[in-house]
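Worked Example 4.2. Consider the chain below.
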Amino acid sequence: MSPVLLIALAAILTSFAQVVTKYFTHRHPVPNTIAWLDWKIWFSKLITLPHPWVIILMLFVASIAWFAILKRINFSIAYSCTISLTLFLNFIASFVLFDENFNIGKLFACFLLIIGIFLLAR
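Applying the procedure from the previous section yields the following structure tokens:
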């Protein structure tokens, strides 16, 4: 599998796992803000998700893809491309799924990320 496809796979799976976790924690918030710092509450949130093993499996496959990426290309390029693509996917998901703010500045920042990915990959 090509490094570009592996980067896309890792970014998509990571982003999807983050969005699903955000979705279910957004629907069932913890009442106390201090409780967000407690790992037991986070673990109980993860267990109470409808399909927690799907999220864990996605992150596991993403980590395997990450190891395959590191075997093929330099760390600086791999990390930058994967994180940038994940940030871009999370930005789109936050606008579409969670009705978060969308403005020209954020759109321009995502555009710069995409240009940076292409320039870095050359």
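The radius of gyration is 16 Å. The chain has a mean pLDDT of 79. Compare this with Example 4.1 before moving on.
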